[in-house]
Specification:
The structure is a single chain. This protein is α+β, with helices and mostly antiparallel strands. The protein has 13 helices and 7 strands. The strands form 2 sheets. The protein has a 5-stranded mixed β-sheet. Helix 12 links the parallel strand 3 and strand 4. Helix 3 runs parallel beside helix 4 and helix 4 packs antiparallel against helix 6. The longest helix has 40 residues. The two termini are 78 Å apart. It holds the Pfam family Sensor. Its EC number is 2.7.13.3. GO terms for molecular function: kinase activity. It catalyses: ATP + protein L-histidine = ADP + protein N-phospho-L-histidine.
Length: 450
């Protein structure tokens, strides 16, 4: 039989007394701070409700007046002040959503307050909802403190009462005929002293937990409604961004359509219309000299045939600009290949297969980006060669045109690319231009697609 000895490790050393005392001091300090926050909350909540409601009413009424904008701004700023105060108070007892703690400025979605700011109405909602909450939390905290302090000071307040004068301690619950009396006895001073000190120790020991729970409920409600990091704020901000994006796309679509119509009108005036005018003049000359100068008639008819062919060619080119048949029949990649082949400047195509047809609006926008960029290359860049690129990945279609010309292209107002940016924005895309002086110019469009 073999005996084995089991060696036990050293037992952990008890925490030093100074460490335990420091922890107790920190808990006591935190409990006092949280109690002060909870007991003063009804005053600030009631004042905040009055200020927020009054500021919103005054600001909304003043904004309807012709010269009431400054008054409305001051009134709405006053309506935000209770929320700022509560945010500062929360920072003294509870960490921020980002992990920081301490008083600080409340984050806002807008620098200036107006009646359309959802933060104002959330401040009003907080002022209304938090009032019953603070009444409950402050009453609970006050009763806890009152009973704890009362029982703890019982020996000081009853030290001179003679033993024979003590009556049995009775607890009364309810009122009227439904009142219930519970006798605790405790007719001796030592018994009452022990009972009072026991209750005081229990209440003071559980007071940090009570204040922490009350602060979590009250401050959590404030952080949920007063911070733009809350889920409700994020939802409202998301809806605002969607609304602004939809509005910007609608404006861009209207602007691009108007620009396209003006360009079509200009092209018709400068191209086919002039050819048709000259055709009419040649036919009129032929008619005038039909009987007297046959050779002049033949020359005029030959010139009319040339003008007719030129007008047809320009009309075909304009029809391709309105609705390119190749794009509708064979897709974006083949249409870009045709554009690169027709470009005056030698152009190379760098395009991956798309693997299927995309949304017609996206294909049309990508086509016109390349067409307009190649037109600018031929007219302004003095480039020797260029590249047309096409990629589709991750739900985004990216087309670009790069040339080795003089550079200097810009999206600023007055440049030809501004209308192209509106067309891209109309389908939710983004147009970027990288064109340093004497460097490569790249026009890139990123278009969302399925």
């Amino acid at each position: 039989m073999t005996l084995s000895a089991h060696r036990q490790g050293p037992s952990p050393a008890p925490a030093p007394a100074s460490t335990r005392a420091g922890a107790a001091v920190r808990v006591a300090r935190r409990t006092l701070l949280e109690s002060l926050y909870l007991l003063t909350a009804p005053v600030t909540a009631l004042l905040g409700l009055l200020l927020v409601a009054g500021g919103l009413c005054l600001g909304t009424a003043a904004s309807l007046l012709p010269a009431g904008s400054s008054v409305a701004a001051r009134a709405l700023a006053l309506a935000r002040w209770p929320g700022d105060l509560e945010w500062w108070r929360i920072g003294t007892v509870r960490p921020r959503p980002g992990g920081t703690q301490g008083p600080g400025q409340r984050p806002r979605s807008k620098e200036t307050a107006d009646a359309a700011d959802p933060g104002l109405w959330l401040d009003l909602a907080h002022a209304v909802v938090v009032l019953p909450v603070v009444l409950v939390t402050s009453l609970l905290t006050g009763l806890w403190w009152f009973i704890a302090v009362g029982t703890a000071t019982y020996p000081l307040r009853n030290s001179r009462i003679p033993p024979g004068a003590l009556r049995p301690m009775t607890l009364h619950m309810g009122s009227g005929q439904s009142q219930v009396a519970l006798s605790l006895g405790l007719t001796s001073p030592p018994g009452r002293l022990a009972f009072a000190l026991t209750v005081a120790v229990l209440l003071l020991a559980t007071l940090p937990l009570v204040t922490r729970v009350c602060v979590a409920a009250q401050a959590g409600l404030g952080q949920a409604l007063l911070s733009n990091m809350s889920a409700l704020h994020r939802r409202i901000s998301g809806l605002e961004q969607e609304r602004d994006t939809a509005r910007a796309q609608a404006v861009a679509a209207v602007t691009a359509e108007a620009a396209a119509l003006r360009r079509l009108e200009r092209d018709l005036h400068d191209g086919p219309q002039q050819q048709l005018v000259r055709l009419a003049m040649e036919l009129g000359r032929a008619q005038h000299h039909f009987d007297t100068r046959p050779e002049l008639v033949r020359a005029a008819l030959a010139e009319a045939v040339v003008r007719t062919q030129e007008a047809l060619d320009e009309l075909r080119a304009l029809s391709r600009g309105i609705a390119p048949p190749l794009l509708a029949d064979r897709g974006l990649r083949e249409a870009l290949a045709a554009l690169a082949a027709r470009c005056v400047v030698p152009a190379a195509l760098d395009a991956d297969p798309l693997g299927g047809r995309l949304d017609p609006a996206v294909e049309t926008a990508g086509y016109f980006v390349v067409a307009e960029a190649l037109t600018n290359v031929a007219k302004h860049s003095h480039a020797r060669r260029c590249t047309v690129g096409l990629r589709h990945a991750g739900g985004t279609l990216r087309v670009w045109v790069t040339d080795d010309g003089v550079g200097g292209a810009s999206l600023a107002k007055g440049h030809g690319l501004q209308g192209l940016a509106d067309r891209v924005r109309a389908v939710g895309g983004l147009l970027r231009v990288d064109s340093p002086e004497d460097g490569l110019t790249t026009v890139t469009a990123e278009l969302p697609c399925r």
